[in-house]
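Morning, I've got a small favour to ask if you have a moment. You're getting the sequence in one-letter code plus the fold written as tokens. Thanks so much in advance, here it is:

===
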Amino acid sequence: MFPFLSAGLDDFVDKVVPELQRRGIFRKEYEGPTLRDNLGLPRPKNRFFEGRFWLGCRPTRAVWPAPDSPFPEVLNMAKAVTIKVKLVSSADTGFYYVAKKNSRTMTDKLVKKKYDPVARKHVEFREAKIK
């Protein structure tokens, strides 16, 4: 054992605990997989999960519930705000970056000055469509 514990602890664990287990006073196995289960405490409700799904069901994919569901208002989801754009080098090296852009706040074409490793200098990168 550890040097700061008394030597009597080893004797207690090796001799007294098996005798208590034999008499049924001390448990041989834990009742549950968690400390909460072993102490007999109730499992608290998840405040983040409560009320999100109906009838205890969980969604299996993004389009849920099905179109014939009694909850059609769930299907009216918003359009994605962030889009990915391709930033092509103006040095005509063929090098490009992929960046994210907020389509609502940045309506014009994106132009950034970044490093082009092929040209070995900073050049302007202009937005192009990702194919």
